[in-house]
Design the sequence.
């Protein structure tokens, strides 16, 4: 590192409270298992115009913490590799990421800095879960009920100009406590729905080799948005950027969820034999959602 980079690293260390003099962070082994995830975000495809650097940092941490939450794990550590065309942006990005980590009890333990033609951030998170208890996408079983936590479509409503939903777009809140509560309630499969509800249902169906049968009337929609009803429906079905949870659970365990005091829980269908995603009337549902290679 040159002198300017060393000074920037020292400033970052003063924010995150970690030593930045070594090439590696040292963390203790877990009492159970590590759960690890990484995400790459680019300014042109992932950060809406008007986002502050602080919000960019917050989102970069939140997307990875959400992946850890969707396994039912306790998020522990975060590393952030920041590439930017302007080093003056770095400190506010770091502050945003650090504030998100602090909110969810995560240690921001370091990362990397580099010059880049556009702001590009790679976020790596490490969580901890008891051995063999992580909730995977592949655990859904015939007869399970399908539920979601959160109202899908709010982030994209914010992107379309509905100011009351901008917080869901710019400062997403990963559902860490909810993911852990669903694990303890007996969820058999789980994932977040950041790419859109329908495509997430398809991903879960493929991972578990089952069919998701959905009562379309039970999918909640954004309310109060100044958008046509059909557009609100499409946002709920296909909108990306939300960090709610999709999960499956045996009917005998549903009462456990009520005991966990989880807000915005909606049951929208059940797991059946077959494949793909169909409506409760038996019709195939058109699937689309966010794609990194077509954005």
Sequence:
């Amino acid at each position: 590192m040159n002198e300017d980079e060393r000074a920037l690293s020292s400033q970052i260390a003063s924010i995150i409270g970690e030593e930045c003099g070594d090439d590696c962070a040292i963390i203790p082994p877990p009492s159970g298992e590590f759960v690890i995830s990484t995400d790459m975000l680019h300014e042109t495809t992932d950060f809406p115009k008007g986002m502050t650097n602080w919000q960019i940092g917050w989102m970069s941490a939140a997307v990875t913490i959400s992946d850890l939450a969707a396994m039912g794990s306790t998020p522990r550590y975060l590393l952030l590799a920041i590439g930017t065309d302007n080093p003056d942006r770095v400190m506010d990005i770091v502050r945003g990421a650090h504030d998100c980590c602090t909110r969810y009890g995560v240690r921001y333990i370091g990362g990397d800095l580099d010059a880049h033609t556009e702001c590009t951030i790679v976020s790596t998170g490490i969580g901890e879960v008891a051995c063999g208890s992580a909730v995977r996408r592949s655990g859904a079983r015939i007869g399970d009920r399908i539920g979601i936590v959160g109202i899908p479509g709010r982030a994209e409503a914010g992107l379309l100009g509905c100011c009351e939903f901008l917080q869901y777009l710019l400062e997403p809140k990963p559902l860490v406590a909810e993911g852990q509560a669903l694990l303890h309630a007996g969820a058999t499969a789980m994932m977040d729905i950041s790419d859109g509800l329908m495509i997430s249902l398809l991903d879960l169906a493929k991972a578990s080799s089952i069919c998701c049968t959905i009562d379309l009337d039970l999918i909640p929609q954004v309310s109060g948005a100044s958008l046509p009803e059909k557009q609100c429906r499409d946002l709920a079905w296909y909108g990306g950027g939300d960090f709610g949870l999709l999960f499956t659970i045996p009917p005998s365990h549903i009462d456990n969820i009520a005991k966990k005091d989880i807000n915005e829980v909606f049951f929208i269908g059940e797991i059946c034999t077959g494949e793909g995603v169909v409506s409760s009337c038996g019709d195939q549902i058109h699937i689309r959602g966010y794609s990194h290679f077509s954005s």
Q: What stands out?
A: The chain has a mean pLDDT of 91. The radius of gyration is 20 Å. The longest helix spans residues 53-69.
